[in-house]
Specification:
The chain is mainly alpha-helical. The protein has seven helices and three strands; from the N terminus they run H-E-E-E-H-H-H-H-H-H. It has a three-stranded antiparallel β-sheet.
């Protein structure tokens, strides 16, 4: 949760499509990928609210949003979307990791994105994604991209 609440306006690095995560696990900064879809949503949010320091300010603009407010927003979004499945906001991290692997993302890159020191921590996501991955020959992928 602190990864969301601690995002500052200059942590959105548009030209590299990254988000800086400040003082995450182990009190280390790290970076994660920023999708074009998410960037468009963040730009729309920025135009509407004009955050100055904290990207998601709290009641007082000089403070970041509270963890409880994020949890409440997540629960409200789930309800509005008709999602009845149990699970808190942390499920977004798990979903990102699983889907990243499902679309062919690399395990070591995922380890960096999630801020795991040990690869075995990241490996728990492999079994979740394993059965959904459709293996493709690199030759087929290359031919689609560069072939005649």
């Amino acid at each position: 949760m602190s990864e969301i609440t601690n995002i500052k306006t200059d942590d959105i690095i548009r030209n590299k499509m990254l988000i800086r995560i400040r003082q995450a696990k182990g009190n280390k900064d790290r970076y994660t990928i920023l999708s074009e879809i998410a960037l468009k949503a963040l730009e729309k949010y920025w135009r509407a609210y004009h955050p100055v320091e904290w990207f998601f300010p709290g009641v007082h603009k000089t403070n970041q949003i509270s963890i409880r407010a994020c949890q409440h927003a997540f629960e409200t979004a789930k309800k509005n979307a008709g999602i009845m499945k149990k699970g808190g906001i942390h499920i977004l991290r798990h979903s990102f990791a699983t889907h990243y692997l499902e679309v062919g993302g690399g395990l070591f890159q995922l380890q960096k994105f999630l801020g795991h020191k040990q690869i075995r921590t990241t490996l728990k996501y492999v079994h979740l994604a394993e059965e959904k991955i459709i293996a493709r020959s690199p030759l087929d992928v290359y031919f689609e991209k560069y072939g005649k």
